[in-house]
Amino acid sequence: MEFIRTSYSKKYDFIISVLHEIKHAMDAKDKGKSKYKNEYEMEMNRQIALGKDRYDDNKFEIEAERWAQKEYRNFWKNKF
Q1: Is residue 5 part of a domain?
Q2: pTM summary value
Q3: Would you say residue 27 lies in a domain?
Q4: What is the pLDDT, as a whole number, of residue 50?
Q5: In this model, does residue 9 exceed pLDDT 90?
Q6: Which residues does 28 contact at the CB level (< 8 Å), separation at least 6?
Q7: Total number of domains constituting the chain
Q8: Which three-class secondary structure string do you get for the chain?
Q9: What's the CA dihedral at 10, 15, 20, 26 to 10 degrees?
């Protein structure tokens, strides 16, 4: 999980980042914060053990990014 940057060159990038983090928060609420954090960290360690990127190849990050993109297309694209 990442923090949201303090500046963005495009509104689109900011909205996607916020939506991405919202997905993480929703998942943590559904699973319980501690369980989600543990699963997330296990996935990071699994990716490292496979010689992959702990963030870019993390299934939780991939899912959050896909959800954010879909949410943007379906609800936010024409709002700004």
Answers
A1: no
A2: 0.85
A3: yes
A4: 97
A5: no
A6: 36, 37
A7: 1
A8: CCCCCCCCCCHHHHHHHHHHHHHHHHHHHHHCHHHHHHHHHHHHHHHHHCCCCCCCCCHHHHHHHHHHHHHHHHHHCCCC
A9: 170
Predicted confidence (pLDDT) per residue in 44-72, tens digit: 999 999 999 999 999 999 999 999 999 99
- The first and second tokens of residue 54, run together, are 């702990």
Query: How deeply is 73 buried, as exposed, middle or buried, from its count of CB atoms within 10 A (0-12, 13-18, 19+)?
Result: exposed
Q: Is residue 1 part of a domain?
A: no
- Residue 47: domain span: 12-73
C-alpha span between 19 and 24 (Å, rounded): 9
Residue 17 lies in a domain: yes
